[in-house]
Design brief:
By secondary structure, the protein is of the alpha/beta class. The strands form four sheets. A six-stranded parallel β-sheet has the order 10-7-6-11-12-13, with helices on both faces. Strands 4-3-2-1-5 form a five-stranded antiparallel β-sheet, covered by helices on one side.
Length: about 650
C-alpha cells in the first residue's frame, strides 16, 4: 500500500463527497438548507420606495387594503408578505427550492431559517422566482399590484439555459468523480499503467466539468442576486448569495484539481502516450538520464537487462525518483510507466517488444553493443508498423550508433535482407553529456544526477523524420558536438581521475581542489581546445566558456564521484578515437607538439589491477607480457607510421620500466 495512493484516494473521496453535497443540498427540509445558491428575502416586502406613504403615494396600499381586507397599519408593518400568502424567504438549490420563515423575524440580526416547505427534486430545475411568487399570491393580487420589477423576470430568463447546462455538468462531474474514486481505491492496492491512465482521464473530466458547473453556478448566483438587490429594493425585497454552496462546489473542484496536480508525473506517460521506447541497460545512465527524457516525452519505457535483481526491482517498483543537483539546489522527479524484461531468460519477449516499439536506445557500454545487435535485428525483421524503428545508441563513444548498426547487420536473420532492414529501421548517432556520480548505498532504483545535460542526436539518418524526444538537441552534423564533448568533458574527467588515483585521493572534487591536478586538467584542455576551435570553427572564447563550465561541473562537491569509477575501463578510454588518443592523434597529424594529453595517457596506463575492473587487469597483463611496440598498437590502435606513435611508445616504455 503506497502513501501517495492513499492521499490520492482521499482526494477522490473529497471531490465526490463535496460535489454530491452541492447537488443534493436543500433537497429536503432537514438536509443542508444553508447550502443554497441564493436566498430571496421577501419578509420586508412593502418597505421599499414603491410603498412610501410619506410622499402621499398611498394608492397602491389602499388597493391592497381593499382587496386583502386588512388595515393600513398591517400592510405598513411587517405583515404584508404574510397577507399576500408569501413566506419570509425562498431558497434556490440545484434540484429544487425551499421556503419558510425567519426566527424570531426577518429583521433580527443573525435570524435563523425555519424551512417549512421544499419542492420535489427535479432534473434541470430552474428557480423562476417570478413564477413562484406569482403562484403564491392571492387570486385577486397580481405581480403588478405589488410593483414586481420586470428586470427580475428578465434576469431569470437569462439564466434559465445556464441552469440546465450547469445541472448537466454536475452530473458528468459527479459520475467521473465516482469512477475516479473507484480507480483510486484500486490504485491503493494494485497500481498499473492502464489503471493510472484511466484514473487520470476520469479525474481530468471531473475537474473540468465540476469547474465549469461551479463557474456557471457562481454566475447564476451573482447575476440573480444582483438583479434582485438592484431592482427589488423599491418594493423591499433582497437576496443573499450562498456562501456555503460556493465553498462546497469550489471545494469539490479544488479536490479534483489537487488530484490532477498530484498525478502530474502520470500525465505524459499514462495519459498522453506517444509510444513505446525500448532501452537496453537498466543502470544509472539508463534510469537517471535517458529514461527521464523518454518518460517526460510520454513513452512507456521498457528496460532490457540481464541482471536478475535489477529486473525484479524494476518490475516490483512502480515509481522511482531522480534527484537532480546543480548550483540552484536539488529537484526531485518521479519516474513511472516502465517495466523490464530479462533478455537472458525472455529473449522472445524482448524481440516481440522491439518489433512493436517506436524507439530503441541503449546505454550498455561500447563493449556490450555486439550482444544487443541480434535481438534488435530480429525485432526489426518481425516489425509490421509502417514507420521505421528509430535506433539511437547513447554511449561515450564516437559514432556509437553506427557501431551498433554494424552488429545489427551482422545478426540479420535468414530470409531478411539489409535492404529490408534499412526500410524498417533508421539510425542516429548521438552525444550524451551528464554526470552521474557514485550513488549512495541502499538507494535502490533512485538516481542522483547533475541538473546539466546535453543529448545531441544527428538527424541525417532519419529519412522519415526523427522521433520526438523532449530535451534532445537535433543537429545535422554531430561531429562538432561529440568531439567537443568527448575531448572536453571526458578528457577532463578522466585526466582528473587518473592523476587522483595515483595520488590516493578519494573524490574528483578533491582532485580538482589539488592545484597540481587542476593544472594538469587545464593544460590537457588547452590542447583539445586548440583542436576543437581550429577544426570546427568554434571561437576560442566560446570554447573557453565551455571549458570553465565543465571544470565547474566536475568540481561540484555535491556530485561526489570517485576516481575508480571515473577511470574504469582504461583500455576503452585509451582507444584510437577516445578522449586521449583521439584528440592527440589529430593534433599530431597537424604537426602540433602534443605534451599534456600524453601525461594523461601515462597515468591511464598506470591504472592497473583495480579491484572490480576487468579492463585494468587486462591492461596490466598486456603491459607485462607484450613488448612496448606491440602493446602500444594493441592498446591505442596507432600504427608505427603515425606521427603520435613514437611519443606514446615512449610513455608505454616508461610505465613498463617502472613496473619492473
Amino acid at each position: 500500500m503506497r502513501f501517495s495512493a492513499v492521499l490520492s484516494f482521499v482526494g477522490a473521496i473529497a471531490a465526490l463527497a463535496l460535489s454530491l453535497l452541492s447537488l443534493f443540498a436543500g433537497s429536503s427540509r432537514s438536509f443542508l438548507q444553508n447550502g443554497d445558491i441564493l436566498t430571496l428575502n421577501v419578509s420586508r416586502l412593502g418597505h421599499g420606495s414603491a410603498f412610501n406613504i410619506s410622499d402621499g403615494d398611498d394608492g397602491l396600499l389602499n388597493t391592497l387594503v381593499n382587496v386583502l381586507e386588512v388595515t393600513l397599519d398591517d400592510i405598513t408593518g411587517t405583515e404584508l408578505a404574510g397577507a399576500l400568502n408569501l413566506t419570509d424567504f425562498y431558497s434556490a438549490h440545484i434540484l429544487n427550492y425551499c421556503d419558510g420563515y425567519f426566527e424570531p423575524n426577518g429583521t433580527a440580526q443573525d435570524a435563523a431559517k425555519n424551512t417549512t416547505f421544499c419542492s420535489g427534486k427535479k432534473a434541470l430545475f430552474h428557480f423562476n422566482v417570478t413564477d413562484i411568487i406569482s403562484n403564491s399570491l392571492p387570486d385577486q393580487i397580481t405581480l403588478s399590484d405589488i410593483q414586481w420589477p420586470d428586470e427580475i423576470e428578465d434576469a431569470s430568463k437569462a439564466v434559465r439555459v445556464a441552469s440546465s447546462v450547469m445541472f448537466v455538468f454536475y452530473i458528468i462531474g459527479i459520475a467521473s468523480a465516482g469512477l475516479a474514486t473507484i480507480a483510486a481505491l484500486v490504485a491503493v492496492f494494485a497500481a498499473g499503467r492502464l489503471s493510472a491512465g484511466v484514473d487520470f482521464l476520469l479525474n481530468i473530466i471531473a475537474f473540468l466539468t465540476l469547474g465549469i458547473a461551479s463557474a456557471i453556478a457562481t454566475v447564476v448566483m451573482v447575476k440573480g442576486a444582483n438583479a434582485i438587490n438592484t431592482y427589488g429594493q423599491q418594493i423591499g425585497i433582497s437576496a443573499t448569495k450562498g456562501v456555503t454552496f460556493l465553498g462546497l462546489t469550489w471545494g469539490a473542484t479544488a479536490a479534483a484539481l489537487y488530484r490532477s496536480s498530484a498525478q502530474r508525473p502520470l500525465i505524459p506517460t499514462a495519459f498522453i502516450m506517444v509510444g513505446t521506447a525500448v532501452h537496453f541497460g537498466g543502470g544509472n545512465i539508463g534510469r537517471g538520464f535517458i529514461a527521464e527524457l523518454l518518460h517526460e516525452t510520454g513513452y512507456e519505457v521498457v528496460f532490457i537487462d540481464v541482471v536478475d535483481d535489477l529486473i525484479n526491482a524494476i518490475n516490483e517498483t512502480k515509481e522511482y525518483t531522480i534527484t537532480t543537483i546543480g548550483n540552484e539546489g536539488r529537484t526531485v522527479k518521479k519516474i513511472t510507466n516502465y517495466r523490464a524484461i530479462n533478455s537472458r531468460q525472455h529473449l522472445d519477449e524482448v524481440i516481440d517488444t522491439i518489433a512493436g516499439a517506436d524507439l530503441v536506445t541503449c546505454a550498455v557500454g561500447p563493449n556490450v553493443l555486439r550482444f544487443i545487435g541480434k535481438p534488435i535485428a530480429e525485432g526489426i525483421a518481425k516489425r509490421t508498423a509502417s514507420k521505421p524503428l528509430a535506433v539511437i545508441a547513447c554511449e561515450n563513444m564516437i559514432n556509437a550508433t553506427d557501431a551498433l548498426k554494424e552488429h545489427i547487420v551482422k545478426a540479420i536473420p535468414d530470409g531478411f535482407t539489409e535492404a529490408e532492414l534499412n526500410k524498417k529501421s533508421e539510425y542516429g548517432n548521438s552525444a550524451i553529456d551528464r554526470i552521474v556520480p557514485t550513488q549512495p548505498p541502499n538507494s535502490g532504483l533512485n538516481v542522483i544526477i547533475e541538473t546539466f545535460y546535453e543529448w545531441c542526436v544527428e538527424t541525417s539518418g532519419f529519412k522519415s523524420g526523427h522521433p520526438e524526444i523532449k530535451g534532445v538537441h537535433w543537429v545535422q552534423d554531430l561531429e562538432p558536438y561529440i568531439e567537443r564533448k568527448l575531448f572536453t568533458v571526458n578528457t577532463a574527467h578522466a585526466t582528473a581521475a587518473y592523476f587522483a588515483y595515483q595520488k590516493g585521493l578519494k573524490t574528483i572534487h578533491e582532485a580538482l581542489a589539488d592545484a597540481e591536478i587542476k593544472q594538469e586538467v587545464e593544460n590537457a584542455l588547452k590542447e583539445t581546445a586548440y583542436l576543437i576551435t581550429t577544426k570546427h570553427g568554434i571561437s576560442p572564447e566560446e570554447q573557453q566558456t565551455y571549458v570553465n563550465t565543465i571544470v565547474e561541473r566536475i568540481s561540484n562537491p555535491h556530485l561526489e564521484d570517485v576516481p575508480v569509477r571515473v577511470g574504469r575501463a582504461p583500455l576503452r578510454k585509451l582507444g584510437r578515437k577516445e578522449r586521449f588518443i583521439g584528440p592527440a592523434s589529430q593534433l599530431a597529424e597537424q604537426g602540433y607538439d602534443v605534451q599534456h594529453l600524453l601525461r594523461g595517457v601515462e597515468q591511464a596506463l598506470r591504472f592497473q589491477n583495480v579491484e572490480g575492473d576487468e579492463e585494468s587487469q587486462e591492461l596490466a597483463q598486456i603491459l607485462k607480457t607484450l613488448p612496448a611496440d606491440e602493446a602500444t598498437t594493441k592498446i591505442t590502435g596507432l600504427t608505427k607510421d603515425h606521427p603520435l606513435y613514437p611519443k606514446v611508445l615512449e610513455r608505454v616504455q616508461k610505465v613498463q620500466g617502472d613496473s619492473k
